[in-house]
Design a protein that fits this description.
120 residues; mainly alpha; 3 helices
Length: 120
């Protein structure tokens, strides 16, 4: 699934950086389903970051901006969106960590069984 048409833009670079960091940090290398889940987590993390950035801009415009300032309702909606996106990204990351740990454990278990069986 291709999310960005052109991967040279700032959002696409942030997405790619987050995706590669997840793959390296969790040791995901060959499993296609784990890679797809990592892509989903990277996208959710990017959305959370963008939502937080928008909220911060609205707060700053409301506090010190000149001219037309955002309404309190706009600021509240942006804060709610940022909080929901952050919670979604954190939950997805926890799920990915659990799946990656289970995948590593299942790959190690047969080797341990062979060692234990050979030593007995």
């Amino acid at each position: 699934m291709r999310v960005f048409r052109d991967h040279r833009g700032p959002l696409a670079r942030g997405y790619r950086h987050g995706y590669l960091a997840l793959l390296a940090g969790l040791g995901i290398d060959g499993d296609a389903l784990l890679r797809r889940e990592a892509a989903r987590v990277a996208l959710l993390s990017l959305r959370a970051g963008e939502a937080a950035r928008v909220w911060a801009e609205l707060v700053e415009q409301r506090r010190a901006g000149r001219g037309r300032r955002p309404s309190p309702r706009q600021v509240e909606r942006a804060a709610r969106r940022a909080a929901l996106d952050d919670a979604s990204a954190a939950q997805a990351l926890a799920t990915l960590r659990a799946l990656a740990a289970r995948g590593r454990r299942s790959a190690v278990d047969p080797a341990l069984a062979r060692l234990r069986g050979g030593a007995a």
